[in-house]
Amino acid sequence: QEDSVAQHEEMTSWDINDTRLPQDVRQIDWFQEWPDSYVKHVYSSEDKNAQRHHSSWAMRNTNNHNSRILKKSCLGVVVCGNDCSTLDGRKIYLRPAICDKARQKQQRKCCPNCNGPLQLLSCRGHGGYPVTNFWRHEGQFIFFQSKGAHDHPRPETKLEAEARRSIQKAQTAFSPSSPRLKRIREIESLPGATQTQEALPLLLSKTDACLQPANVGGRLGNSCRELT
Ligand SMILES: [Zn+2]
Ligand SMILES: [Zn+2]
Question: Which residues does the UniProt record annotate as the domain GCM (predicted)?
Answer without folding.
Answer: 12-167
